[in-house]
Design a protein that fits this description.
heterodimer; A: alpha+beta; five-stranded antiparallel beta sheet; five-stranded mixed beta sheet; about 15% strand; B: alpha/beta; five-stranded parallel beta sheet; 5 strands
Chain lengths: ~575, ~120
Amino acid sequence: MTALKRLRSWFADAFDRPSPSVKQSASTGGMIGALVILYFVPGIEVTDAALTWVSVVLIGAATALAIILTKFRQLDRIVMIVPVIDIVAFGCFRGGTGGASSVFVSLLILPVIWLASGSGRRHILYATVLTAFALFLPFLIGVTEPSTITDAVRGLFTPLVFAAASGIINELARQGRAQLESIRSLADDKERMLQRTVEFAAQLQESEQKYRAADRLFRGVWAAVTEQSVVGTDVTGLIDAWNPGATKILGPSAKDAQDKMNIFDFHLPEELLDRARELNYPPGETVLNPGFSALVESARLGTSETREWTYVRTDGSHVPVQLSVTKRVDDQGETVGYLFVASDVTQAREVARLKDEFVGLISHELRTPLSSILGYLELLRDDEDAPLSTEQLQYLGIAERNAHRLLRLVGDLLFTAQVESGNFPLDSREIELESIITASLDTARPAAAAAGIEVTNEIPDEAVIVHGDPTRLGQAIDNLMSNAIKFTPRGGTVTIGLTMSDTSAVVTVRDTGMGIPEAEMDKLFSRFFRATTATRNAVPGVGLGLTITKAIVTAHRGEMGVASEEGVGTQFSVTLPRVRVTASV
Amino acid sequence: MTHTVIIAEDDPDIRGLVAIAAKKAGLSVLEVVSDGAAALSAISSHRPDLAILDISMPEMTGIEVCRAVRADSSLGDVRILLLSASVDEEAVDAGLRAGADHFMAKPFSTRDLVDWLAVGKEDKP
C-alpha cells in the first residue's frame, strides 16, 4: 500500500512537475540512441571525431548539471542552461556526423522543446537563435565550408521551422501553466471552503449541544419548582407559562391556564384597585385594567418588585403570597410580558403569629409570679410591726435586685420579639435630649459609684430637640451607659457626650474599658451575641442590650456607630435626626 | 365611714397581696373573687365604693367588667382600678376608654397601691 502510494507520488512528481533530470532524459536518451545507430548501422558514420566527442561530452555535462539542479531546486533560475548546452551539443553532433547530410538533425527538437516551453516569449527567440547557431556551427568553427546555397537555406529554414514550433510549444506551455494555475487556485478555494464548512458544522454541533443542555436544565428547573408559583404572561396579563408550583398553589393545570386565563384573575380585585389608587392609576399597556397596570408598574419601569399580595384560588379560597414581578424582554429589549414568581407565606405568617402569641403569653406568665415575689418582699420590708434587722434587710435587697433583673430580662425578651415582628409602639413627641441624658446619668451614678468608676458628661448649653419616644430613647441610652460601666474596670471613666450639626444630634458614650475584639465588631448587634472580652471577664448579661438599643435607634430613623480598641476603650454613638426649632423670641 | 372594695384577680397570691394593700389603706374588703363574671355579680349586689380588677381573667376580662359596670347607671359611682401584667399600651388605652379610673401595671409596688387606694377611696366625683 505504501509502496504503491510512493510509486504514484513519484509518478505524479515526474510528470506533473517534471524535474530537470526528467526533462534532460529525452536529450540524453536521444544521444544514446544516436550513438547506438552510429555504431551498428552501416553507412552512417562519424565524419569528424573531435566534434562528435565534444557533443558526447557536452550532453554528459548537461545531464550531470540537470541531476545537480534536480537536487538543488533553489538554483532553478539557471536551469535553462541545460537545454542551451544540449542544443550546442546536438549542433556539434550534427557537424561530426556529416553536417548538412547528418541524419541526427532532428535531435535538436528535444532541447528546443524544453527551451521553448520556458515561461515568457523570449524563449522562442533563444530557441531560434540557438538552433541557427547550432546549424551554422560547423561553418563557424571552420570544420566545413558552406558548399551550396542549399546548405545555407537549410541553415536558415530549419531554425525558422523550429522557431514556429517553439512559438507553438511556448504558447501551449503557457496555456498549460495558466490552466494548471487556475486549477490549483480552484482546488485551493475548494479546500478552503471545505475547511470552512467542516468548522461551521463543528460549531453548529457544539452550539446545538449547548442549547440542548440549557434546554434540559431549564426544563428540569421549571419542573422542580413546586413550592413557588412561576407564571409568565404577555403585556396584557394573558398567561402563557405556568409551572407545577402554580398548579399546586392556585389550582388549574398548565393546560387550563395557558392562553385561557389572565394573571389578574388570581388576584383580589380590591387589593389591585387599592394599589392602583396608591400609585395614582399608572399608565400601562392595558389602560382598561388599572389593577394589572398597578401590579406590573414597577417591573414595567425596569425594577423588579417584591411585595405581599393575596392570590385567589379557583375554588375561591385566599392565599397570602410574597410575589416578585419581573419584566420579560425580547432580543431588541422590547417588553413582551411579565414573570410572576410567588411563594405561599401562609405558614410563615402563622409561625410569626404563634411566636408573637407565645412570647406574649410567656411574658405574662413570668410577670405574674414576679409581681407576687416583689409585692410580698415589699410587704416584708414595710412591716412596721416586725422591723427587720440590717442583715435581713440586706438579704431582702439582694432578693429584690434579682427579681428586678429577671423582670428586666422578661421585658427585653418581649421587646426583642416585638422588634422582630416589626411592631413595637413608639410614643413620639418633640423632646430635649439633655433631659434624657441627665436622667440616664442619674440612673447610672449609683452603679458607677459601686463599681468605682467616674462618670463625666460633655453636654452643650444649647437645647437639642429630636422627635422620639422619651422612654425608649432613655432605655437605649441607659443600655449604653450600663454596658460602659459593666465593661470598665475599677478606676476607669465613662463619659457621655452630646454634639450636633444642623441636621443631626449625636449622643456618644465612651469608656476606658476592655474593648471589643475587631473580629467581633460586625456581630455586635446580633441577638444573644456576647463579646469574648465579656465572657472572659465574666461580665454578666445575655446579649440583648445592644440589639434592643439598635432597634430603638433605627425606629427613630437614627444610626448607631461603634469604635473600639481592645484594652483601651469603646465609644458608641447614636445619631438622631434633629428637629429644627425656629428661634422663639 | 369605712369605704368598701371588691377585689377580682385570678392569681391567688396577687389576690392576697391586693387584699393586704386594701386593708392597709383602711378599706373594708367585701368580697374577693377570681373571675370576671363573679366580679360583676359581686359589684352588682354589694355596690362597693371601689373595685380592683385584673384585666386578664377567665369568664370576663377586667375591661369587659368595667364596661358592663359603666353601662349600668345604678353602679355609676364605683371607682375602678385596673391591674395588668401586660405592658401593651393598647390594653391600657382600652381600659381607660372602658371607664376605669386608674391603671397599674404588674409588678406594682404595694406601697404605691396603698397610697393610691388611700387617696382614691376619698376622691369621689
